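Troubleshooting: if your tokenizer reports a length mismatch, compare your output against this known-good record of 46 residues.
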Amino acid sequence: LTCDTEAQALDRAGIDGSSEDKGAEATWAALSTLAALRALHAPASP
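Known-good structure output:
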């Protein structure tokens, strides 16, 4: 994540008054990807 200004970084930080939480969004995306990959590589049930 790259921010152009400190104000932009604070707005994306997920703190009180910010409009977004890019860290939480990235975390959920990573966990969803991990779950999908595990499901693809899981042994088939009989």
